[in-house]
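REVIEWER CHECKLIST
Item 1: Sequence provided? yes
Item 2: Single chain? yes
Item 3: Sequence as submitted:
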Amino acid sequence: MNMRTLVKYPFLPQALDVVRNIELDELLTSSIYENARDYGIAKVISCFDENLRSSITDEETKIIGFYISKLFLIALSDPIITRRFANVVRDELEGHLIEDSSENIYLVASSLGVKYKDIPEKIRRLHEENPKPWVAGTKYELFILVHFLDFIKYASGISGEAFKLINQPLKEGWVPVSKEEFIKILREAFVKNFVRDIESNANKKDALKKYFKDEIEKIRELKDAYISKYSSQDFGDVVEDAFPPCLKSILVKLKNGVNLPHQARFFLVTFLHKIGVRNDDIMKVFATAPDFNESMTRYQVEHITGGISKKEYEVPKCSTLQAYGLCVKNAVNDNLCKKDWMSHPLLYYKIKKEWISRQRESSE
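Item 4: Structure as written out by the authors:
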């Protein structure tokens, strides 16, 4: 495999051949690999400051540098930084795949464990005769079949009609998708695989920390400064203890750097808006999201709350949250949540808030 392909996809198993025979101590201390260390560390640090990106262009150095990035992330063991880095690489991956050959797309899919197979001509003809409703009249070409389990696993966090299994034709457990859809599935598969790889090596963090002492301190300062710049200290008069479990679950995921699906973000914004949280404070809640972008987040918040769209969206009902996979009542011990008449998260908040208020008054 040529070096150019490995530079684009340094997570491929073949890239390990470049570093396989290098001793860890030599890799992380020798002057021979200084440029690779600078590149790998800068790639992680630049997640919080793009001006700190490395200008190194040597292909082998970049491949080794990516491996060092992973070692640095293991030493950090910080889920927010890991997921933010994974998202940056994810977006680079999508850009490369869009321009690349089908052969390399299949190579990446295989390395990520995404099951696929060629589309029979019969299915292509059926699609031409009965196109998917949301692509009728547009340029759309089927590319590959994806196994439905992988489709569910990796497409669940992607917004849009094309990524809802219920909207997809299913043939013996396989879902036909376009090249663009397949690439988006691959990029989500990369994030899950990459994060799992870093987390599964957490037992090595103590052995690696000694090599990155100064760099660990630097990136933690950058992360804290970045998040504190946007983070809200509280929700004003809002009673957080009265939040329903589904909302608390989403907030915990955000604090841990988990990339939320569109439905979860929509629910969070509409709920906080309805209970009186200002848009600026709603926006700051997303500061720990791995794909946080101030201007984009502000636009989305303004749109959902009616500032741009002039339409103020309603908070989803419990039944809708269940359909989205956001309901957690079966996983928590919350009697109020499990009442037969509990049909809306705002109703939960209202009742719980009143109960907390009475408890406080009686204790005083």
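Item 5: Key structural point noted by reviewer: The radius of gyration is 23 Å.
Item 6: Recommendation: ____
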